[in-house]
């Protein structure tokens, strides 16, 4: 966890993202038809202002709410699910290619996954064997994102195309990693603002894997639902803290440089892509909740109520690291999480965080198995995640209240152009 929030990018400019729903579509009315009935009273969606209206919706059909109608684009320079707003439901799943499956089978699988992702993100049923789980819903801002783990290149004979940035992450003192829930040949991130839409996509991806790949591990997460607060806010984590304020924003002049691999970079098939570090971070909530409010705020370095730095101001006020109190000590403690993770305290290292919270019940001692599915994006993890985590390892006050239990590093290629599938430039290059 670092002192950075998710980018304020919306796939539905000007629309309130709120929950709600309508009557199920009448028999024979597809999700695509509900979404494509444009009319004079239609809603304007998407960065390009694509019109999606409901004035001419079939008789008896109730127009989708803005939440259900939200749509992310599959094709583009970058894959979806990196700069899109946080969704309320998420699934992370890693696959290993089966014995005997190689480059040919991997290419066929990525082609299937890309076709499925494009259809589901458009609000259409899966291309084959649709389960009808999301039959009555719109796209609900669904995104599917695909990546390659280090071992993928060995299994497909593409070792010469493996990026140097996929070198194994170093060991950290807070690691208690379960290898069975770490890494993987292939990685898929699914997010949506409706739980059934997200699950529908998960099942479709799993079914598409067929005999080519098997699930290595899967994790399920959630965030606050759109419209649950009076106005848009930085998310809170399960510790009750405003989790992140200084995330790089797409409007920053150096955003692309920090997050995406440039054209002409190495390897060339990663142009427009990014590297995802995935960590399952368990929060030791029973210990955390024994702390007083003041103690919790000193651990983080920010006020719990509004996320403002302890040095004063509002959430977005620059933290004054030199400010001292009446006793001469720093107002923001030297080991406060927010102090240690600031980019200017880490040689400018920065990454886009896009996490989900999780709760997987209780352990044998009755403690909650809950925390953060940490996902961060950067052009180079050795200049993004690694230096920040190394510094956290050396003295972060938060470290005694969290435990890293699983880890993965994945190369996520750029977006697929029209007529392409994700990873085609690698697999057919």
Give me some keywords for this one:
429 residues; alpha+beta; four-stranded antiparallel beta sheet; 11 strands; oxidoreductase; signal; EC 1.11.1.-
Architecture overview:
- Residues 5-59 have low confidence and may be disordered.
- The longest helix is centred in the first third of the chain and has 19 residues, at 103-121.
- The chain has one domain (31-427).
- The chain is 20% helix and 18% strand.
- The protein contains eleven helices and eleven strands.
- Strands 7, 8, 9, 10 and 11 form a five-stranded antiparallel β-sheet that branches. A four-stranded antiparallel β-sheet has the order 4-5-3-6. Strands 1-2 form a two-stranded antiparallel ribbon.
- The chain has helices spanning 31-36, 66-69, 103-121, 150-155, 195-209, 255-259, 285-288, 293-300, 337-340, 385-393, 424-427, and strands spanning 43-45, 50-52, 89-97, 143-148, 186-192, 213-222, 274-283, 352-353, 356-362, 368-378, 402-412.
- A hairpin with a 4-residue loop joins β1 (43-45) and β2.
- The two termini are 37 Å apart.
- It is α+β, with helices and mostly antiparallel strands and 429 residues long.
């Amino acid at each position: 966890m670092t002192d950075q929030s998710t980018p304020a990018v919306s796939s539905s400019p000007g629309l309130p993202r709120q929950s709600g729903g309508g009557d199920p579509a009448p028999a024979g009315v597809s999700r695509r038809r509900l979404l494509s009935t444009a009319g004079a009273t239609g809603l304007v969606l998407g960065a390009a202002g694509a019109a999606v209206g409901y004035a001419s919706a079939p008789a008896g059909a109730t127009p989708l709410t803005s939440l259900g109608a939200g749509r992310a684009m599959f094709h583009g320079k970058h894959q979806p699910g990196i700069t899109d707003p946080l969704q309320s439901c998420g699934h992370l799943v890693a696959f290993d290619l089966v014995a005997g499956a190689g480059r040919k089978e991997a290419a066929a699988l990525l082609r299937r996954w890309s076709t499925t992702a494009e259809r589901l993100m458009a609000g259409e049923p899966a291309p084959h064997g649709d389960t009808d789980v999301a039959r009555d819903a719109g796209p609900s801002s669904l995104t599917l994102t695909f990546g390659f783990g280090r071992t993928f290149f060995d299994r497909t004979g593409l070792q010469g195309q493996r990026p140097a940035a996929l070198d194994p992450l170093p060991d950290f003192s807070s690691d208690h990693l379960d290898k069975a829930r770490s890494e993987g040949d292939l990685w898929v991130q699914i997010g949506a603002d409706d739980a059934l839409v997200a699950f529908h996509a998960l099942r479709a991806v799993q079914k598409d894997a067929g005999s080519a790949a098997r699930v290595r591990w899967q994790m399920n997460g959630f965030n606050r639902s759109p419209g649950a607060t009076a106005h848009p806010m930085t998310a809170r984590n399960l510790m009750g803290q405003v989790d992140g304020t200084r995330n790089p924003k797409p409007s920053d002049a150096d955003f692309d440089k920090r997050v995406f691999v440039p054209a002409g970079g190495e390897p060339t098939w990663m142009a427009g892509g990014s590297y995802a570090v995935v960590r399952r971070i368990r929060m030791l909530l029973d210990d955390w909740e024994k702390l007083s409010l003041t103690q919790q705020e000193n651990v983080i370095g920010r006020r719990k109520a509004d996320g403002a730095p302890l040095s004063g101001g509002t959430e977005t006020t620059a933290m004054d690291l030199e400010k001292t109190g009446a006793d001469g000590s720093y107002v923001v403690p030297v080991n406060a999480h927010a102090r240690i993770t600031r980019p200017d305290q880490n040689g400018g290292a920065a990454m886009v965080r896009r996490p989900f919270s999780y709760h997987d019940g209780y352990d044998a001692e009755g403690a909650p198995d809950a925390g953060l599915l940490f996902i961060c994006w950067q052009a180079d993890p050795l200049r993004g995640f690694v230096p920040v985590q190394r510094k956290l390892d050396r003295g972060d006050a938060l470290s005694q209240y969290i435990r890293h239990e699983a880890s993965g590093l994945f190369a996520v290629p750029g977006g697929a152009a029209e007529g392409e599938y994700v990873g085609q430039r690698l697999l057919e290059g």
